[in-house]
Design a protein that fits this description.
Length: 369
């Protein structure tokens, strides 16, 4: 079949809107019509050439929502007509990691996913006979795409695609980091570094669980109103702090935060986030993705005296199990998404969406097919 898609033919080049040939689903695979997809910083990270797994040409996009149109042999959990969210972190429920209950980092399709192909080692996309690679196992910048059954979460039919797609990455990553990774408790003090799409979801989750002081740190004053809208109690523009940022934050939180979250991907900020934690028990959660090859550093004494560094991928969520619950939270008014969808664009306008993100003018731009 044919599908329109935004293809990244090279790093650092604009996406091109072209018609691709798409092979239907093989055994264990599902054909999905993507109805809406968000533009995430991770897509830009790969397009800008910072991703060690970046392969070109490829169909980017990993934050989508759509409808199952066809299932391959052996697929039992989904059928045509089901509404779904693609998962860049699969949940097979059979591998060592899934069975351990200790992590959401399913290994079932991870190796082939990182190579831009389906589990059988081949791509379903072609352009003028040439292979085009999948991205993060999702490729939601294509109107139709094929995914493994275990990389799809079935959701309720009444959830709007242009909002639910954001749960495929940004919402789940931020909310999950608070609930699953840090397990923030009521009354805790929290600092959030970077008030973009992920950071705002960290803030609203911290408010949801009853955190006391929620400090937002950014270099853009315009983010202050956004943070306050979702529950932030204090705002710090790190550019305006006289002297070192860390002592300022430690003083503000009376000895340091119980939990800090890096949502920037900046390794300098990651160190600041750790060192702004409270001595003895503070935990710092790294969410932001740093450029390939970057390393983090701190004095060992920071860890010896009780601070903890943790990482969180996809908010520690088990996609097929947890994503439908988060969709329910949104539909039941427990969390907000609508205000964060600042721009709705067509596929032909997708490069404009990247520009808005780089210019700091959007929280989340969504492409509606």
């Amino acid at each position: 079949m044919k599908t329109r898609a935004a293809v990244a033919f090279e790093a650092k080049k604009l996406l091109e809107i072209v018609e691709l040939d798409l092979e239907g689903p093989r055994a264990g695979e599902v054909l999905v019509e993507i109805k809406a997809t968000g533009i995430c910083h991770t897509d830009a990270y790969t397009l800008d050439g910072f991703d060690s797994e970046g392969i070109f040409p490829s169909v980017l996009g990993h934050e989508g929502a759509g409808i199952v149109r066809e299932v391959g042999a052996g697929v039992t959990s989904l059928k045509a007509g089901d509404h779904v969210i693609p998962l860049y972190t699969a949940e097979c429920r059979q591998c060592k990691t899934c069975l351990s209950g200790k992590s959401n980092l399913c290994t079932a399709v991870r190796t082939t996913q990182g190579k831009g192909v389906m589990p059988d080692g081949t791509s379903r996309f072609r352009y003028k006979g040439r292979e085009v690679f999948h991205y993060m196992g999702c490729s939601t910048f294509s109107n139709f795409t094929v995914l493994p059954e275990i990389s799809l979460a079935k959701i309720r039919d009444d959830a709007p695609f242009d909002k639910a797609c954001y749960i495929g990455c940004g919402v789940t990553t931020g909310v999950g980091a608070v609930i699953n990774t840090a397990k923030v408790e009521a009354g805790a003090n929290v600092i959030v570094f970077g008030l973009g799409g992920i950071g705002l979801n960290v803030i609203q989750a911290a408010k949801m669980v009853g955190a006391d002081m929620i400090v937002g740190v950014d270099i853009n004053d315009a983010k202050a109103d956004w943070g306050k809208r979702f529950g932030m109690t204090h705002f710090v523009n790190s550019k305006n702090v006289q002297g070192d940022l860390v002592p300022h934050l430690v003083a503000l939180t009376n000895g340091g935060a119980d939990y800090t979250f890096d949502c920037t991907g900046n390794t300098t900020v990651m160190r600041q986030a750790l060192e702004a934690c409270h001595r003895g028990w503070g935990e710092s959660i790294i969410i932001g993705v740093a450029e390939a090859g970057r390393e983090i550093a701190t004095r060992p004494f920071q860890l010896v005296t009780g601070r903890v560094w943790k990482g969180s991928a996809f908010g520690g969520a088990r996609g097929r199990t947890d994503v439908p619950k988060i969709v329910d939270w949104y539909m039941n008014g427990k969390i907000e998404i609508d205000p964060m969808i600042t721009h709705v664009l067509s596929l032909d306008e997708i490069n404009k969406g990247f520009d808005l993100m780089h210019e700091g003018k959007s929280i989340r731009s969504v492409i509606v097919y």
